[in-house]
Amino acid sequence: MPAANARQAGTSPEPTRNIPTDGPATITSQAFPPAVSLRVIPRDQHNISRKDISPNALRVLYRLRDSGFAGYLVGGAVRDLLVGGHPKDFDIATDATPEQVKALFRNSRLIGRRFRLAHVVFGREIIEVATFRANVDDGSGDREQHEGGRLLRDNVYGTIEDDAVRRDFTANALYYAIEDFSVRDYVGGFEDVQARSMKLIGDPEQRYREDPVRMLRAIRLAAKLGFEIDPASAEPIARLAPLLSEAAPARLFEELLKLFLSGNAVASFEGLERFGLLPAILPETAAALASNRSGALRSMLLEGLRGTDARVANDEPVSPAFLFALLLWPAYCRALIGLQAQGVNAEEAQRRAADRVTLHQLGTVALPRRFSLPMQEIWLLQSRFSSRQRKRVMRLLAHPRFRAAYDFLLLRLTASSEHAEDVAFWREAQTQSGEELSAALGVAAPRDVYAEDDAAPPKRRRRRRRSGSAAPATE
Ligand code: ATP
Ligand code: MG
Predict the structure, then answer these.
(1) Which of 218, 243, 397, 398 could be cross-linked to 212 through a Cys-Cys bond (beta carbons 3.0 to 4.6 Å apart)?
(2) What letter would DSSP give residue 84?
(3) pTM summary value
(4) Which residues are designated catalytic?
């Protein structure tokens, strides 16, 4: 069995004790590629304070140290703390194997098939503890590569240097040491954070080819942190965008949720546009926006994303169904207009447009049915806001998706003032009692035309209203 496989099976790697805490500030290691040099940023030269670190993460760090292992806070948490942010999770890297970590913490479990990790569980908080790992080709044969350079397996343990260089961005490869509260930097990440720059470690094109999702991460993290993407890391993105179609649709779904439901949706969307990634992840929306000369659909989308960001900022819940209804609305409108132009009747066209757009999008992003069904309902309910027939009004008000569909109608006002009257009616309707509403409808809608459920409004009138309301003017 090759050495690397033995390690994979859980035998301890050489303990990584190659970082002297009291040594010179800079030492050079010849770790296989690239050569890395360690810079130690002492406590008085950075702003990370223990009081900003989760007490549970501190507990894990201290227990690892007291048991003779190396343990560092690493990744997003160190980066976020350096820019004064509040990390949402605290990850730890160690030279202890997952089994050794498991033995140290009764409240831990091992997860992951491809690469084993320990989760140390403290109530609702989970501290992820990962053994230093490498993904460099060290000739052990324990790494397989896709022809295009995509990484299929990266499951060998390594040194802390290996662990640093296999990370994506320099800002994500900083290690906070509990023994002296210093930050350890092997790849120049500390300077890049100060310069507010997202920079890939190593050759950008190669790193994107290994894992195209890194392109989305560059945009998301730059949007979140207010960083610029370093020019050399930005350049290949538009060119390599089509590689995203090779990424797992389930992973892209998760990544889209992070892009748009973490409070930086507007900046993320603008980043996707600016770096040419929109056609790769939302192809039909990108095409619909490009052909919408007035820009009304884009304004509506951005308005919706602004609302999403405001909700996140206020700790209000946000729903993936509403988000995707918004992101795919331009595609839906375009499909609907196309079908209606072919003479398909309004109701049938709405259903088919909703199905077509959903199905098409599933080719890139795995949108689970528990989100795609309510997303479609939000779309299909739009055409029902033009009705003033008493029973239909009551039924729509009682619909479980009414609120979301109404909020969506409000957003559509940004694209077209044509819905102002409907918005006014439904705003009022929600505040009225059943009797008040009936009375109001009785006055506004004489019995002979609207009152009976089965006595639908005259066909010509209904068709005109429905199609007008379902498909906003897009040019
Ligand atoms: P956030 O949690 O704020 O979204 P993060 O950087 O912590 O950002 P995670 O997905 O939690 O993102 O990943 C944790 C760390 O793992 C990263 O900081 C980075 O060091 C490393 N990492 C994550 N994804 C990749 C990747 N695709 N390629 C290489 N390293 C990665
Ligand atoms: Mg994280």
Answers:
(1) 243
(2) T
(3) 0.83
(4) 89, 91, 168
Instruction: Give dist(CA 435, CA 77) in Å, integer.
Output: 56
Nearest to 302 by CA among 283, 280, 330, 276: 330
Distance 420 CA to ligand 2 centre (A): 43
Domain 282-442 sits in which CATH superfamily? cca-adding enzyme, domain 2 (1.10.3090.10)
For ligand 1, whether the C-beta of 119 sits within 6 Å is no
91 pocket-lining for ligand 1 (C-beta < 6 Å): yes
Instruction: Determine whether the shortest distance from the Cβ of 162 to ligand 1 is under 6 A.
Output: no
455 pLDDT more than 80 = no
State yes or no: pLDDT of 33 exceeds 50. Answer: yes
d(CA 60, CA 41) in angstroms, rounded, equals 22
CATH code for 3-195? 3.30.460.10
Nearest ligand to residue 79 Cα: 1
Specify the higher pLDDT residue, 142 or 161. 161
Q: Are 470 and 335 in contact (CB under 8 A)?
A: no
CA–CA dist 401, 408 (Å, integer): 11
Going by pLDDT thresholds of 50, 70 and 90, the confidence category of residue 452 is: very low
What is d(CA 19, CA 40) in angstroms, rounded to the nearest whole number? 10
Task: State yes or no: pLDDT of 425 exceeds 60.
Answer: yes
By the 8 A CB rule, do 166 and 154 touch?
yes
Q: One fold for both 3-195 and 282-442?
A: no
Domain ranges of the chain: 3-195, 282-442
d(CA 328, CA 288): 9
